[in-house]
Write a structure and sequence with these properties.
The structure is a single chain. The chain has 242 residues and is mainly α. It has one domain. 78% of the residues lie in helices and 0% in strands. It contains eleven helices and no strands. The longest helix is centred in the C-terminal third of the chain and has 28 residues.
Length: 242
């Protein structure tokens, strides 16, 4: 990355971290399309590697609020889903990755606004884990399905439970991506370059979280991410057609 790309990428990470810390979900909607625009190779491996630092920090800070019920079940479901996602990622031509990322982002937006309610059971945890693993491994966005399981929980419990899930899922996904040749030492170095933005965003969010209008922020995030996803798909189609 050049200096300009580094600054833009970390600015996206700052914004994504603020959203993630405030609500527990949604940071990927901002981060993934921007990083894919800047450098398609930053998604999903380097981005997931970088975000592991944030999710670990959030899980540790609010560890007393973690709801451990069904977390092992969700992580078990993530395994076959992540394998399927890694296979999809390794099978898609590089020129079509933007289409895949954009499509998954739009799917995530649809899930987020669908109003679907899941009963948090062992079966729903397995299914949500599998589908989230497939989406997260193929694009870096798997949170919306997991968020549906925790939508009736209190704010701190949502943030803490999702953070520990993201931490476990990120480690699992990175291992699987490496097994499919989709995550390397070079990708880890690229991910490390994205961590400063996440840490700055975490610091900002912890100090100004009470001033963030989460309802309004959610609407803005979903609108921006939808527009970015559509633009990413259109750009990829245009490049492929030229």
């Amino acid at each position: 990355m050049g200096i300009a790309e580094f600054a833009a990428a970390n600015a996206a990470m700052v914004l994504g971290a603020v959203i993630q810390v405030a609500s527990g979900v949604g940071g990927g909607f901002v981060i993934v399309p921007i990083l894919a625009f800047l450098e398609i190779g930053l998604v999903p491996g380097p981005m997931i590697f970088a975000s592991l630092a944030l999710s670990t920090l959030m899980a540790f800070r609010e560890r007393s609020a973690i709801n451990w019920n069904f977390i092992p079940t969700i992580l078990i479901g993530l395994i076959p889903g992540s394998l399927a996602g890694a296979y999809i990622l390794s099978s898609v031509p590089a020129g079509n990755l933007g289409i895949v990322f954009g499509s998954v982002i739009l799917l995530g937006v649809i899930i987020s606004i669908s109003g679907i309610e899941f009963r948090h059971t062992r079966t729903s945890s397995l299914v949500a884990g599998a589908l989230s693993g497939a989406m997260g491994t193929s694009s870096g966005i798997g949170a919306p399905l997991l968020a549906l399981l925790y939508q009736k929980e209190t704010g701190p419990r949502v943030r803490a439970s999702l953070a520990v899930l993201y931490t476990g899922a990120s480690i699992l996904i990175l291992i699987i991506l490496a097994g499919f040749g989709q995550f390397s030492v070079a990708d880890a170095r690229s991910g490390a370059l994205l961590m400063p933005g996440l840490m700055i965003g975490y610091w900002v969010a912890r100090r100004f979280i009470v001033h963030i209008d989460r309802g309004g922020t959610r609407t803005v995030v979903l609108c921006i991410s939808s527009a970015a996803a559509i633009a990413l798909i259109v750009r990829s189609l245009t490049i492929n057609a030229s």
